[in-house]
From TrEMBL:
<dbReference type="GO" id="GO:0005524">
    <property type="term" value="F:ATP binding"/>
</dbReference>
<dbReference type="GO" id="GO:0006633">
    <property type="term" value="P:fatty acid biosynthetic process"/>
</dbReference>
<dbReference type="InterPro" id="IPR000873">
    <property type="entry name" value="AMP-dep_synth/lig_dom"/>
</dbReference>
<dbReference type="GO" id="GO:0005759">
    <property type="term" value="C:mitochondrial matrix"/>
</dbReference>
<keyword id="KW-0547">Nucleotide-binding</keyword>
<dbReference type="GO" id="GO:0004321">
    <property type="term" value="F:fatty-acyl-CoA synthase activity"/>
</dbReference>
<keyword id="KW-0436">Ligase</keyword>
<protein>
    <recommendedName>
        <fullName>medium-chain acyl-CoA ligase</fullName>
        <ecNumber>6.2.1.2</ecNumber>
    </recommendedName>
</protein>
<dbReference type="GO" id="GO:0006637">
    <property type="term" value="P:acyl-CoA metabolic process"/>
</dbReference>
<keyword id="KW-0067">ATP-binding</keyword>
<keyword id="KW-0276">Fatty acid metabolism</keyword>
<feature type="domain" description="AMP-dependent synthetase/ligase">
    <location>
        <begin position="52"/>
        <end position="172"/>
    </location>
</feature>
<dbReference type="GO" id="GO:0031956">
    <property type="term" value="F:medium-chain fatty acid-CoA ligase activity"/>
</dbReference>
<dbReference type="InterPro" id="IPR042099">
    <property type="entry name" value="ANL_N_sf"/>
</dbReference>
<dbReference type="InterPro" id="IPR051087">
    <property type="entry name" value="Mitochondrial_ACSM"/>
</dbReference>
<dbReference type="Pfam" id="PF00501">
    <property type="entry name" value="AMP-binding"/>
</dbReference>
<comment type="similarity">
    <text>Belongs to the ATP-dependent AMP-binding enzyme family.</text>
</comment>
Amino acid sequence: PCRSFHGNNRLLTSQIVSYYESINQGKKVLPEYFNFASDVLDEWARLEKDGRKPANPAFWWVSDEGEEVKWSFEELGSLSRKAANVLSEACGLQRGDRVVAVLPRVPEWWLLNVACMRAGIVLIPGTSQLTAKDISYRLQASKAKCIITSDTLAPALESVLPGSQLLRSKLTVGRGSRDGWLNLKELL
């Protein structure tokens, strides 16, 4: 079923379907390498900027307390480029490196997903319900070079980090700072 987004008279679903139909009919060439961040997100941001696509939020998050975070395609693109730079420069990660993210579903969870796609970094998501043994196993099995968590979950994770030989950097998402951890908000 197609529906418009917040009163927009253009149907998003039909646009996506027509795009894929044009690929199936050979009217569009599939790229050899596809990157959602640059091939979709950046393209939609460009279309919005050029006035060829109506402005709609790319991301809209509301907390249980009613706090809202709303990013346009251009804002999400810009923030994800900055986050990708944090991962590459401050955390020292390269294309193909693995990151374990133990985060609640906060806006930064989605931002870091897009940033990892953009930078070619493999994101291994984990929930806050994982035990120390679960996290230790994931760090060892994945050979992760970075762990990302919230400032409130960081103390619980620190007990398993010494056993992870390949871990290069630790990144927190939140307002608080912690010794030995980088802070995403400060680095952005």
